[in-house]
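sanity check this record:
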Amino acid sequence: TFGSNVSAIGMATNTTLDPTDPAYKWVDKGQVLTSQASSNFNAIDPNILVDAGGKVWLSYGSFWEGIFQQEIDPATGLIKTGGTAYHLARRATSVTYDPVEGASIVYKGGYYYLFVSWDFCCESSPANSNYKIVVGRSTSPNGPFLDQGGADMAAGGGTILLQGNSAWSGPGGQTAYIDGSGDGVIAFHALKLAQNGLDYLFVDSLDFSSGWPVIQP
């Protein structure tokens, strides 16, 4: 339920991604991770990273104490037994409710880049939706992820990549991706204020040539 951390991340598997194949069928494998009212995290917004060494990582989290990460056993798709839960990002202690979510990590040019959404996506007045896309980078898939000023995202740091303006509010809910050609892509949504906050989906290029991502419309 919205605003609750009684949540679960599930998994389904398929032997093919071709919907015309007779073997095409999604099989429910159950819960991978759950959170309760007593947890310091919220088990939503799962995202998978395969690092440069082939290890598989699950990032997750929304509000509460922010973004976490655990290793996945590729043989089962489940969290690896006995692994560490890495704390990747949260808001500064002065920010009420710790509004950070939607983690997405990519590897490019020797760095891992962590993208998150800050603040609120879905206010009753669209102009008050102040979601924004924030990024940090690390040489390790487990962090620490530092912003351009050197601040750790796990201590409230983060460089703003994209935020609203007079025409659009609340850009966020992003997923970053490195495509088969090695080019960066980012998908996100934003609210068009001239249409009473109608939600639009964007897919734009990411330019990493400076060492930090820039969105290229």
User: Anything to note?
Assistant: The radius of gyration is 18 Å.
